[in-house]
Design a protein that fits this description.
alpha/beta, eight-stranded mixed β-sheet, 6 helices, globular, binds 1-O-pyrophosphono-5-O-phosphono-alpha-D-ribofuranose, binds uracil, binds magnesium ion
């Protein structure tokens, strides 16, 4: 599996704000928005483009546009905080939604929402979820996409744990991972260490469980 770590100084400073336990929900959401812009920008470097003539006020120039804008798929809840900034950079994109909540005892994802196009053949997909921990949630989401014919899937994360990366890689599914950092490990409650806590709760509120 191809893994890109976006370790730009500005990305690192937004990630630091997200890690800081003193950062409040509003500041956390703002840092996630900005970091997502940087992650999408880097992920899009390899997107296919096509050329077309564009009339400037002076002459005709060669214009560039994405040949095949990706379907954006935020994984609810936490991925919702990445949706707006991704769509701002990719205004031609459509958006699907997957809702998953990790069971607190088995750590397996429980699916509660699925709103995706039926046929994804030939459509690149950009999955948005800040956290790749055990990998169960993203694997579930990617399987939904592959079942619909997707063969070109980029997963955009803020933090990834080695165990989650290994699980996605071992699946053999057509995944590329773009993340701002790879952290050390998971704790006994399957939270990323040092991590940033629960990315859903830190945006939208809830009880700390780590
Ligand atoms: O790799 P995993 O072990 O599956 O864990 C990662 C998942 O956990 C978080 O969601 P969570 O289940 O907390 O739901 P939330 O977004 O509603 O908080 C996160 O946004 C991922 O989807
Ligand atoms: O560290 C973690 C692990 C799973 N989900 C989160 O939001 N954070
Ligand atoms: Mg959560």
């Amino acid at each position: 599996m191809d893994v890109l770590v976006v370790d730009h100084p500005l990305a690192k400073s937004r990630l630091t704000a997200m890690r800081d336990a003193r950062t409040d929900n509003g500041q956390f959401r703002a840092a996630l928005h900005e970091l997502t812009t940087m992650l999408v920008y880097e992920a899009a470097r390899s997107f296919a483009t096509e050329q077309f003539p564009v009339q400037t006020p002076v002459a005709v120039a060669e214009g560039t546009r994405l040949a095949n804008p990706p379907l954006l798929v935020p994984v609810l809840r936490a991925g919702l905080g990445m949706a707006d900034s991704a769509l701002a950079l990719l205004p031609e994109s459509s958006m699907g939604f997957v809702g998953l909540a990790r069971d607190e005892e088995t750590y397996e994802p429980r699916a509660y929402m699925e709103s995706l196009p039926g046929d994804l053949k030939g459509i690149p997909v950009l999955v948005l979820d800040p956290m790749l921990a055990t990998g169960g949630s993203l694997l579930h989401c990617v399987r939904l996409l592959v079942d619909r014919g997707a063969t070109d899937i980029t997963v955009l994360c803020v933090l990834a744990a080695p165990a989650g990366i290994e699980r996605l890689a071992d699946s053999g599914l057509p995944i590329r991972l773009v993340t701002a950092a790879i952290d050390e490990k998971l704790n006994e409650r399957m939270y990323i260490v040092p991590g940033l806590g629960d990315a859903g709760d830190r945006q939208f509120g809830g009880m700390p469980r780590f």
